[in-house]
Amino acid sequence: MRLFLRIMGTWLIGLALVLLVVDGTRSLAANALQFTSLAQAWSGWHLPSLVAVQEFFASRFFADLLGTALAVLLTYPAFAVIGVPGIILAVMGRTPRTERFVRQSQI
pTM of the entire structure? Predict the structure, then answer.
């Protein structure tokens, strides 16, 4: 399970870094800070899946709450929305440390 978490975390962090480089390049070209929102990135990748997720959330019990949460999430920068879960998965997948303290003679 840890291996799966580390692999998924690494892939998400890698994708977030690619998106950050793309945003950095666009910012340099425009001479102003520009971020690609998750909605722009998702519609560029596969628009029918974005529409399907929005329709799925609209048909649920808490449709107003889910729709609002999705709308807010779609306004955030894509690298942050993808990078934060990647970091969390990578940290969850690391091996636990058995020794936290080291004696001075072991240094």
Answer: 0.81
